[in-house]
Structure to design on (404 residues):
């Protein structure tokens, strides 16, 4: 099938968040030529030969536990954070309204209080069992694909961060998980139920969050069985992105890092959910993991995340790096990173959707290691050096042909 005939779907779990709204607007704006693709890795000149799906080929849908619309999400982001010009929204509003019709009430299974607090009355479906949740999500994904005559669909988890989830023996094999699901004795977070539903239906799955998602051995097995690529987890857009560049610099110059302290403040709903200690624990775990791997030793480190409502979608990170140089001299690097969370993340959502759809057409299944450069905790890739991770992406895309 030629590129001109192909139609693909992007299904956003957490569609009406800042990231979901900005992603939808970004696709609509790029399709109309209103903006250049600044921020899209897949738009780099070195990848011009790759058969990525153009923005004009995408149809957007999703789930959300709040009653809203893509246009309202963008207006809210503009009002709170003073980003996105009104003319772009005006030109794209008709398209956003069409895509809003594809967004359905979110499906929840035993969510924690921080996430439940965001749900609007009557706009979240409470599943009684994990199987109920999986079947409902799967039915709605298949209906979306059929209604729009889509050749492929990629499901992207952009929902709020869940508390840490530790797998048990039931999650180690697909047979064990399926048996436990039939007995209704297994515990799974909502992100993993969405992942199961998508993968079993033959749709690619990408996890932007620190939540468990598809990062269970049983779901990796299912992805390989169904011929589905999966990618995650926890999108790398700010402080951890800088760490993945700066920590290798210290290592290669043989400068010993003594301590690395990072203090993060942010607003938006992500910050609101992360104010809950259980949810915050997932985020801190991924943000603090790479130093020991890159440096080869573990310096004293501290990561803090605080919710500051007035900041809206803007986030600020202050980092203090204390390091030892020649002749025992101690020195300091201090830096400040300020960025708009949704503006940083949305182009990477489009990148990952394009990459996952391409991988599936090439016959790749299971964890997409080439996507490691996008994530704080890249599944299946222990190396956190951004340069090495990006080289993996370049190597993967050097040959644009089918893999199977």
């Amino acid at each position: 099938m030629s590129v001109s005939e192909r139609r693909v779907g992007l299904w956003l779990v957490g569609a009406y968040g800042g990231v979901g709204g900005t992603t939808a607007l970004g696709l609509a704006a790029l399709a109309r030529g209103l903006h250049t693709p600044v921020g899209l890795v897949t738009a780099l000149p070195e990848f011009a030969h790759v058969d990525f799906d153009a923005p004009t080929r995408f149809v957007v849908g999703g789930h959300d536990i709040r009653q809203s619309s893509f246009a309202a999400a963008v207006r809210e982001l503009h009002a709170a954070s003073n980003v996105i010009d009104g003319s772009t929204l005006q030109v794209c509003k008709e398209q956003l309204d069409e895509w809003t019709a594809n967004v359905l009430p979110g499906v929840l299974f035993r969510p924690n209080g921080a996430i439940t607090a965001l749900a609007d009355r009557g706009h979240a479906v409470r599943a009684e069992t994990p199987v109920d949740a999986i079947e409902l999500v799967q039915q709605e994904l298949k209906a979306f694909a059929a209604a729009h005559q889509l050749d492929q669909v990629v499901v992207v988890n952009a929902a709020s961060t869940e508390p840490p989830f530790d797998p048990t023996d039931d999650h180690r094999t697909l047979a064990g998980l399926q048996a436990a699901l039939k007995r209704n004795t297994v515990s799974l977070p909502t992100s993993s139920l969405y992942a199961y539903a998508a993968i079993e239906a033959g749709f690619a799955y990408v996890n932007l969050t620190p939540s468990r998602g598809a990062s269970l051995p049983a779901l990796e097995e299912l992805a390989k069985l169904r011929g589905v690529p999966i990618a995650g987890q926890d999108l790398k857009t700010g402080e951890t992105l800088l760490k993945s560049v700066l920590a290798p610099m210290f290592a290669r110059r043989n400068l010993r890092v003594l301590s690395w302290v990072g203090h993060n403040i942010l607003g938006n709903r992500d910050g609101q959910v992360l104010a809950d200690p259980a949810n915050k624990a997932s985020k801190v775990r991924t943000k603090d993991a790479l130093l020991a791997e890159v440096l080869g030793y573990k310096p004293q480190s501290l990561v803090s995340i605080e919710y500051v409502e007035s900041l809206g979608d803007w986030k600020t990170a202050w980092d203090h790096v204390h390091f030892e140089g020649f002749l025992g001299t101690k020195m300091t690097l201090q830096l400040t990173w300020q960025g708009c969370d949704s503006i940083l993340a949305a182009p990477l959502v489009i990148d990952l959707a394009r990459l996952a759809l391409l991988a599936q057409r090439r016959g790749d299944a299971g964890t997409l290691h080439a996507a490691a450069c996008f994530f704080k905790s890249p599944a299946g890739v222990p190396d956190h050096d951004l340069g090495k991770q990006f080289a993996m992406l370049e190597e993967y895309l050097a040959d644009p042909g089918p893999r199977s």
Observations:
- Residues 341-361 form the longest helix (21 residues).
- The chain has a mean pLDDT of 91.
- The chain has two domains: 8-235+343-398, 239-340.
